[in-house]
Design goal:
The complex is a heterodimer of chains A (309) and B (425).
Chain A lengths: L8 H19 L3 E4 L4 H14 L8 E5 L5 H14 L3 E5 H7 L15 H12 L3 E3 L16 E4 L27 E4 L7 H11 L10 E8 L2 E4 L2 E2 L5 E2 L9 E6 L12 E2 L5 H10 L4 H5 L9 H7 L4
Parallel strand pairs in A: 1-2, 1-4, 2-3, 4-6
Antiparallel strand pairs in A: 5-6, 7-8, 7-11, 9-10, 11-12
Helix pairs in contact in A: 1-2, 2-6, 6-7
Chain B lengths: L8 E8 L6 H11 L5 H13 L15 H6 L6 E6 L3 E7 L6 H10 L3 E7 L6 H12 L4 E7 L8 H17 L2 H4 L1 E6 L23 H7 L12 E3 L2 E3 L14 E5 L4 E3 L3 E5 L3 E10 L2 E3 L1 E3 L3 E6 L10 E4 L6 E11 L10 E6 L2 E14 L6 E2 L9 E13 L11 E6 L4 E8 L1
Parallel strand pairs in B: 1-3, 1-4, 4-5, 5-6
Antiparallel strand pairs in B: 2-3, 7-16, 8-9, 9-15, 10-14, 11-12, 11-16, 12-13, 12-15, 17-21, 17-23, 18-19, 18-22, 19-20, 19-21, 22-23
Classes of the chains: A alpha/beta (309), B alpha+beta (425).
The complex binds guanosine-5'-diphosphate and magnesium ion (MG).
The site of magnesium ion (MG) has 4 residues of chain B, from helix 1.
């Protein structure tokens, strides 16, 4: 008997993700890949290239834009889709607001959780039966129990107590009309795996992932970026009375709606420095940077039940 | 192989035990002692521990994820956790210990290559221990670690530990488990963190490996045994409409090598039709490989133009596998709706599906006594030996020789739910 070498952990994770993407393509009739321009979805684009080239992707890309995204990320999103020659669909929370399906409690309420409404509207508009996303189980407690192919009912709801058992690599992505599947090819990746993969594959990222100077204030123990220019030119996140603007060297560990993504202090200006910093970090990715998860122990679970990613 | 290193592999394992044997504490300990738990998570769980009036930080809170679980203090469903030691990445499946255990345990075991079976040192080998061992055996886990936990509560007594090990071996021999599997024993205190990552001074009489040492040296999946090459086709890539004329005749068969290996030039047969050809090229992304191995997702190009689609299986010519229209298997029922022998189900096996009907139910296994009982139906958590008649042929191996091509799931088309898990005899 010959001694066989197992795959390295990154090769294994890559192969698993490619397999999951191909299962989606094989089992679903109208899937879509959710692409935000963030690091997790950039990894998935790379995986999709490895899964389907020299063919085209068997799905379009789609971004649900809250209108409050960093303009560097939006520019990067458009550039990447163009380079790949793949179709990018953008649907915006602002359009849902105009339709009256999203109503903010106040003008400065975070639009982050309202993405779910716009996503469900887009799923209905295009008749998608599967959305591929970049969520990882290590991000948050409720996600640790999420399936790789996760079933959502007609209202887009996740029922954590009634999930399909998932055995071996026999994924069940079947759904009836109106229902859909959320597929998570990098479920088993950690933040560290993502950075190591970005380093190994030499993936380009939006500039705000790297250390840069930025005006921030300290608010409730978090670093909050202020006066952030939007794509429209408008500035968001005004300084509140009594707050002092500090110019700091920071980077983002996760990018999303401006209202709920905070940067960390860092001088890591390239990927290998970020890998090192991640290895020695004492704070979780979301703990440090997601202002929306800190409200309660269960806030992510609640949002997911309502159709959030 | 070009892009593989032996020093950075991945191991999937699971923990089994009855409620309160210490599964969550064990996992919490491993994460804590390998520095996977970061400061903010620790603050969060220490606040929760205090709210519940506990003195020390309850590490089990790390794995009890959902709102209902936190309220009731129990684990509802299989949860996955990750840690890395620098030499290995680990994926832990944590299956809870209440009534639905069989279903959850089979689910967790299906992807594990090693199982830690927890025994409470005060209680010894129980009915549950037998059940967990039988299930681990059934689902084909090769490496078993019997962890005698809560040694602190029996004064770290060696005699108590030795007796439990002897009892376990007697029973393992009875079910033919001891010969077939690699079984290791270890005493520990998950609460005190003794013999997991660190070796404290309480048990100088134990000189064997710590839990982490056992995990670090356990063989990764597919590195033992001689599995044959199996390549279920997931997707066929035909970019003929592309502007690139070179791609006009491109026909790539995409899939994951479920077992064995393949090299350019190898003679292959495509089942179920039996067309023969040779491997012209193997691609992984932009890379052209000369050969590829188990668990790699690749694209195969063949020398001849063969009509092949998703659900076909590429094997080496001469391999001992043929399409069958009937299978016999141990099936674990996963759904609250019992199996109905009158109904037609869908079986998904590798990338292939077939309609299926129950031919006969030979017997049901009592997972506690391992007795065989006659039965006409199958309820959730039951395990039975069943024959299915298939509308479409499947290319199967026995589960004992190949976990990928010996496994299937049963789907109820009315709900699309996964209702059964099968292991082919
Ligand atoms: N004394 C002692 N208590 C332990 C040990 N391991 C776990 N426990 C306690 O046993 C109880 C149940 O543990 P838990 O990890 O939740 O068990 P699970 O139900 O198997 O997940 C908790 O109160 C733990 O603190 C141990 O090694 N020694
Ligand atoms: Mg528990």
């Amino acid at each position: 008997m010959t001694i066989k070498q197992p795959l390295s952990h990154l090769d294994w994770l890559e192969s698993e993700a490619i397999y999951i993407l191909r299962e989606v393509a094989g089992q679903c009739s109208n899937p879509v890949l959710l692409f935000s321009g963030g690091k997790d979805s950039l990894c998935i684009l790379r995986l999709a290239e490895k899964a389907f080239r020299p063919g085209k992707f068997p799905f379009p890309l789609m971004h649900i834009d809250t209108g409050h995204n960093y303009k560097e990320v939006i520019a990067f999103r458009d550039q990447r889709a163009a380079e790949l020659g793949e179709r990018l669909i953008v649907r915006s929370v602002e359009d849902s607001m105009k339709r009256g399906t999203v109503v903010l409690k106040s003008a400065d309420e975070s639009r982050n959780k309202h993405q779910s409404v716009t996503l469900l509207e887009a799923i209905e508009e295009f008749g998608f039966d599967c959305c591929i996303g970049g969520a990882r189980r290590d991000e948050e407690k409720a996600r640790a129990k999420e399936r790789i192919m996760s079933f959502r009912d007609e209202f887009g709801q996740w029922d954590p107590k009634n999930q399909r058992p998932e055995l071996w690599n026999l994924y069940n992505a079947r759904s009836h009309k109106g229902e859909n599947i959320r597929a998570f090819p990098i479920s088993n990746w950690t933040e560290m795996d993502v950075w190591q993969y970005i380093e190994r594959e030499n993936l380009a990222l939006p500039s705000i992932y790297f250390a840069h100077q930025r005006d921030v204030v300290m608010r409730g123990g978090s670093i909050v970026p202020v006066n952030v220019p939007l794509v429209s030119g408008e500035l968001t996140n005004p300084v509140k009375a009594g707050e002092e603007i500090i110019n700091m060297q920071v980077r983002f560990r996760t990018v999303g709606d401006i209202s709920c993504t905070a940067p960390v202090i860092s001088d890591a200006d390239n990927v290998s420095k970020i890998v090192l910093e991640t290895a020695t970090s004492t704070i979780t990715e979301r703990g440090a940077t997601r202002l929306d998860d800190q409200t309660s122990d269960a806030s992510m679970e609640q949002r997911k039940k309502e159709g959030y990613f | 192989m070009s892009n593989t290193t032996h020093n950075d592999s991945l191991l999937r394992f699971m923990t089994c035990g009855s409620v309160d044997d210490g599964k969550s504490t064990l996992i919490g300990r491993l994460l804590f002692d390998t520095k996977t738990i970061l400061a903010d998570t620790l603050t969060q769980i220490s606040n929760t521990s205090k709210k519940r009036g506990m003195e020390a930080v309850d590490l089990s809170l790390l794995t009890d994820g959902l709102q209902a679980e936190r309220e009731q203090g129990i684990t509802i469903d299989v949860a996955y956790r990750y840690f890395s030691t620098g030499t290995r990445k680990y994926i832990i499946a944590d299956a809870p210990g209440h009534e639905q255990y069989t279903r959850n345990m089979v689910t967790a075991a299906s992807t594990a290559n090693l199982a830690i079976i927890l025994i409470d040192a005060r209680r010894g080998v129980l009915t549950q221990t037998r059940r967990h061992s039988y299930l681990a055996h059934l689902v084909g886990i090769q490496h078993i670690v019997v962890a005698v936990n809560k040694m602190d509560l029996v004064n770290y007594d060696q005699a108590a530990y030795d007796k439990i090990c002897a009892d376990y071996l007697t029973f393992a021999n009875e079910i033919g488990f001891a010969q077939a599997r690699d079984i290791k024993f270890l005493p520990m205190s998950a609460l005190a963190g003794d013999m997991l990552v660190d070796r404290l001074e309480n048990m100088p009489w134990y000189t064997g490996e710590t839990l982490l040492e056992i995990l670090e040296s356990a063989p990764a999946a597919h590195t033992e045994g001689n599995e044959e090459f199996r390549f279920p086709v997931q997707f066929v890539c035909r970019p003929h409409a592309s502007a690139d004329a070179d791609l006009h005749d491109f026909r790539g068969f995409m899939g994951r090598i479920e077992s064995g290996n393949i090299a350019v030039g190898d003679a292959v047969t495509v089942l179920p039709n039996g067309y023969q050809s040779k491997v012209k090229a193997i691609q992984l992304g932009e890379a052209q490989l000369q050969s590829a191995q188990t668990e790699q997702s690749v694209t195969l190009l063949l020398e001849d133009e063969i009509d092949t689609s998703r659900g076909d299986m590429i094997v080496k010519t001469g391999s001992n596998i043929a399409p069958v229209k009937q299978i016999e298997a141990f099936v674990c029922w996963l759904s609250e709706t019992p199996l109905s022998p009158a109904r037609t189900y869908v079986i998904r096996h590798t990338s292939r599906e077939s309609k299926a009907k129950v031919g006969a139910i030979a017997y049901k296994v009592d997972v506690n006594t391992l007795e065989q009982q006659a039965t006409t139906d199958l309820k959730m958590n039951d395990i039975a030996r069943i024959t299915f008649k298939l509308a479409q042929p499947l290319m199967v191996d026995s589960y004992n020789t190949n976990r990928a091509t010996g496994a299937f799931i049963v789907i109820d088309e009315s709900t699309n739910n996964t209702v059964g898990a099968g292991m082919i005899v």
